[in-house]
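Q: You know discrete backbone vocabularies at least as well as I do. I have my own habits and do not want them to colour yours. No explanation is needed for now; the record alone will do.
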Amino acid sequence: MGDPQALEKLDLPRDRPVVTICPRGKTSALAAEQLQARGYDVRNLVGGLKAWSLAWNTAEMTLPDQAATVIQVRRTGKGCLSYLVGSDGEAAVIDPSLETDVYLGLAEAQGWRVSSVLETHLHADHLSRARALAQASGAALYLPAQERVSFAFQPVREGTRIAIGRTTLQALHTPGHTPESTSYLLGESVLFSGDTLFLAGIGRPDLGADTARTRDKALALFESLERLTSLPADIIVLPAHTGEPVPFDQQMIAADLATVTARTEILAMPKSTFLEAILARIPATPPNHERIIEWNEAGVLPDDPTEYEAGANRCAIG
């Protein structure tokens, strides 16, 4: 309220920087000024948490056996993970959650043309940029087969193969998190697991479902996870989200399937115990998920996506 002494009694460490944060970066700017006047080394998070939700960084891995390079694009404050898979001058983008220019710029820097845009499922925690990216790049838009969206796309079904240069993505229908959820195999090297399998958790089956339907989806999820965990133990799992803030360290958020299986105890449970455990562990519902689903089904973006995307994702059950 314009009180110049508001932070007068605040005692902070002076051997490290202080960052002031608020939803939009305005109140925190005032706080930064007051603290700077007291001699603190202060930074204000410009744009606040809304802007932080769009901050991103990348990590990269080269797969000589697949003649491909994978770039992981991470929204550090949101936990969304998307991917460019490039080979021989072409690229596919999986689960884009940032502005189209991000992916087009990354592809151009590698000498790739974006030829395919894919989704693993219809997302509930962020607004998809898949349709916008396909339109901006002239790429083919691939979505798992379903009747939820109201725009044109090329349907992906079990066994669908999508060529990218000298490599290929193969679709595995893995329902549970959503009925249409689909994972993609890059040879026997990499599994893009969407929100079905995380690095230490599994996808929640409850969004948009009543109790009976949630149980049915949980059963489908159990069977999908059984299928995925039967893949080669050294396959690298690349999920669509992470529950931790992403450091700017250029290290892939990834693990081999053996490690994922070992650290995710719910995967070792028999079916009846699995169903009880997953129903007991369902986290709080993501904010604005119903509106986000409506927009993703319509293939449109609001004027300010961050207004609805702020906050961490809540897709996983540990």
Q: What stands out?
A: The two ends are 42 Å apart (CA to CA).
